[in-house]
């Protein structure tokens, strides 16, 4: 039942929709909830927008965000649950899941590959770069007139999920939709600043510490960085700021594989992998009980930072050239 | 005479055009030269493409770049000079300027604000995000059939001059053109890697050193970084890698003004300014005999690193709040 018209008919019939996205909300989830919520209000619906998890401060500029319920949703009297950017019920989180479990009619709108979406009415388009693209099309089908607030939310959804139009999911259709959104006087430079140029100072301090651990293999194709638990605690950085650090290793010239070793409690190490052009790091993560995608994967391994690093680097070098140069793996001056 | 048809007529009549851009070539200059050059070849012209300055290694992936003459252009027998992305003859550089000076008919295609372009036939459109947009339109007027090689060059021109579609110059028309370019099977993710994810290791080492000098004012609105001549020489970093460092200071949360102090030979300091939302750093640079734009400017000041920093920070804080907190200006833990 992959038809936007069916979704539109279902939505037209409702009066009091509850709209939500996934836990640990990102720009696509939030922007999609808000664009759809503000859009349905223009059609006269009594809209409630909600998130089980807190909204990252980064997204406090999104039009309508101050009206989003966070962490708790009163039972209320909803006649439809609309879920965006969420492929399994569990990712609705504690505040929204009960409504689905109690049988409230549920519409799922998503761009993740998913053969069995969990809604009563579903629309999944995995070629969409962001769920925001689907919301944009749905608003058109519903006959909603666009405005700047809608456009800013949709733009944010699309720009964040495409990494500023750099990822593989970016298509002609993505740019064509954004061309249209820009006609609603979106302040592009200001939004870019708000999204990309407001990094917490702790993130920069973390970067300084992490760069001090950078090592590049003799071949230049493998780069590693490390973060001890002690350093992390002393800086007090959030997980969302830690994750991105691996890109500094990945983005070094000639590096194909980047690995980030992050010490956890109880002699465990979280290992993240990234590759640039040809190495399947999903295979690498699988060797250590993890998984993920071809260019981004991860696993958690028991042992000290040093032990885990030695083991994982050995496997990575095998994959990178068959040549075992572990003895010559050195700290670049 | 700001008519693309006039340009097209002039170009149609030529047989052996010499095409060049500006010194210190960037993505827009190189991509525009190559797209136009490859396009005119498809029309049967005997095209010579040239650059007075070396091509940054970063751009070695551009289709056709290996055919570009660098640093020296034999007198040859050219019947037209086509100059892209260049607003004054001096920026043609030593290899190309003589052709203009000797009176070779010159076409100028540019997107910089310029009331008096220097060509015999000129087309200037300052609303274009990149000269690449103008070249794209010109190729259409000339009836050139697009292909992947042309599209990659035009895409690179546009994506680099808009900072990946983040700068103020990005318009609906920009995205509309890129939507069309993507139809020629551009490998977006691969190009993004080549353009943004191949940073020399020396750049990361430089970053480590420069971050160690980061200071943020008590108000959190002013951030400074420094680079001593000794550090720069010991790392051996290129100017193009040094310039970008200021963004790490600018992109800190709540920071409005970022200043980068870079020690030069002979007791002089190069000072770069960036602002985010509201401070006019052109005014700031002018106080020290420099200049630039509202959000990006610079000057060179005589004195030691410490002296110049104290002076400039004082003026910046005046501008930022009228409150002189120099005594409380401190090194953030």
TrEMBL record, chains A, B:
Residues 234-315 form the DHHA1 domain. Residues 18-157 form the DDH domain. GO terms for molecular function: nucleic acid binding. This is DHH family phosphoesterase. It comes from Desulforamulus ferrireducens.
């Amino acid at each position: 039942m992959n038809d936007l018209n069916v979704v539109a008919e279902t939505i037209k019939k409702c009066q009091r929709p509850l709209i939500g996205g996934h836990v640990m909300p990102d720009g696509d989830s939030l922007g999609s909830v808000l664009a759809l919520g503000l859009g349905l209000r223009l059609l006269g619906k009594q809209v409630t927008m909600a998130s089980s998890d807190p909204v990252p401060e980064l997204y406090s500029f999104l039009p309508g965000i101050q009206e989003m319920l966070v962490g708790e949703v009163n039972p209320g009297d909803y006649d439809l649950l609309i879920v965006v950017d969420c492929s399994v019920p569990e990712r609705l989180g504690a505040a929204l899941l009960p409504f689905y479990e109690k049988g409230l009619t549920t519409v799922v709108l998503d761009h993740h590959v998913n053969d069995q979406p969990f809604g009563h009415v579903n629309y999944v388009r995995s070629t969409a770069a962001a769920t925001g693209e689907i919301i944009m099309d749905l608003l058109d089908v519903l006959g909603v007139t666009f405005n700047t607030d809608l456009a800013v939310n949709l733009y944010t959804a699309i720009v964040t999920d495409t990494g500023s139009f750099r990822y593989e999911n970016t298509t002609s259709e993505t740019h064509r939709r954004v061309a249209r959104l820009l006609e609603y006087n979106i302040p592009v430079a200001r939004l870019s600043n708000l999204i990309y140029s407001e990094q917490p100072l702790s993130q920069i301090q973390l970067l300084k510490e992490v760069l001090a651990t950078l090592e590049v293999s003799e071949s230049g194709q493998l780069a590693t960085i490390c973060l001890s638990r002690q350093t992390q605690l002393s800086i007090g950085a959030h997980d969302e700021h830690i994750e991105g650090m691996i890109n500094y290793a990945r983005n070094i010239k000639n590096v194909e594989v980047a690995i980030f070793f992050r010490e956890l409690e109880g002699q465990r190490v979280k290992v993240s992998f990234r590759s640039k052009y040809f190495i399947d790091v999903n295979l690498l993560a699988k060797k250590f009980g993890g998984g993920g995608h071809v260019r981004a994967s991860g696993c958690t391994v028991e042992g000290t930072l040093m032990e885990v690093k030695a083991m994982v680097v050995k496997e990575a070098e095998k994959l990178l050239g068959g040549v075992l140069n572990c003895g010559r793996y050195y700290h670049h001056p």
